[in-house]
Amino acid sequence: MMQQIDLYGVFLPTLLVAALMAYAMFLALRNGLARIGAYRFIWHRPLFDVALYGVLLGLIGYVLKWLLY
């Protein structure tokens, strides 16, 4: 991810955009999981949340790399 994204003349690092997208997806997934009661079956919720965010960030980074190159 060496490219930068141009947003109306402001250059943003690709990792920043990916991190913000992953955070938005993470919040939606976390609320959905809490609503259906999936956190009852998870032993360590903060550790699961960090892992979920890492997986989402990696997935978005992979997709952005595939789209931008």
TrEMBL record:
UniProt entry keywords in alphabetical sequence: Cell membrane, Membrane, Transmembrane, Transmembrane helix
InterPro entries: DUF1656 (IPR012451)
Transmembrane feature ranges: 6-29, 50-68
Name under which the protein is recorded: Membrane protein
Species name: Thioclava dalianensis
